[in-house]
Design a protein that fits this description.
Layout: E1 40-47, H1 51-57, E2 62-65, E3 68-73, H2 76-86, E4 92-99, E5 106-111, E6 121-126, E7 132-140, E8 143-144, E9 148-157, E10 162-163, E11 167-173, H3 176-180
Parallel strand pairs: 7-9, 8-10, 9-11
Antiparallel strand pairs: 1-4, 2-3, 3-6, 4-7, 5-6
One zinc ion (ZN) binds near residues 7 and 16.
């Protein structure tokens, strides 16, 4: 008789017997990566036009930030300011992630006031690109041409956002504040 063994990760719907968490590399994990206790919630702000590429390929590493090559993250409000500053002031995307900020994978430093951010702020530069997971999309003032699939993730749309494709997400967040403040 065939018995399907179930992993011990809460919320996992796979039929495997052991759950691998790519963030902490536990091979028999009791959690999904999105709930990894070794990871924190951080945000990546980007112009809206990058969203399709992020949906398809994940976040792209920047080649020349203050901390060198890597994927840059900040806290929610500051990531939003970065996306405003890099875009046209309206259309923006804020990607919410769980990130393992262990110094083995990630550098961090204070950044001086920049773009619309009028004070010093902490930034993180992830150098191991496997050590994050996207858990939410915040999209403001734009049309997403394509599908958004984030079965367990969060979506925040402002009222001027439209998705022309299929949407599959876990939870719709009503306010920008709630999206940016995990
Ligand atoms: Zn599992
Ligand atoms: Zn983990």
């Amino acid at each position: 008789m065939n018995r399907t063994q179930k992993c011990k990760a809460n919320g996992c719907d796979q039929t495997h017997s052991k759950h691998y968490c790519k963030l902490c590399e536990d091979k028999n994990s009791n959690h999904l990566a999105r709930n990894c206790p070794d990871a924190i919630t951080l945000y990546h702000g980007t112009p809206f036009d990058n969203i399709k590429s992020i949906i398809d390929n994940g976040l792209r590493a920047s080649t020349g930030g203050c901390l060198g090559q890597g994927i840059y993250f900040a806290k929610g409000q500051e990531a939003k300011e970065v996306s405003i500053g890099k875009g046209d002031g309206k259309k923006m995307a804020i990607i919410k992630c769980k990130v393992n900020v262990d110094p083995k994978y990630c550098k961090t430093a204070q950044h001086s006031a920049w773009l619309g951010i009028k004070h010093e702020f902490q930034e993180w530069c992830l150098t191991d690109y496997t050590k994050y997971r996207i858990i939410g999309f915040g999209v403001i003032d734009g049309v997403v041409n394509g599908d958004i699939s984030l079965p367990r993730g969060e979506i925040y749309y402002n009222s001027d956002t439209l998705c022309t494709g299929k949407e599959n997400y876990g939870k719709k967040i009503v306010s920008e504040y709630d999206f940016l403040n995990d």
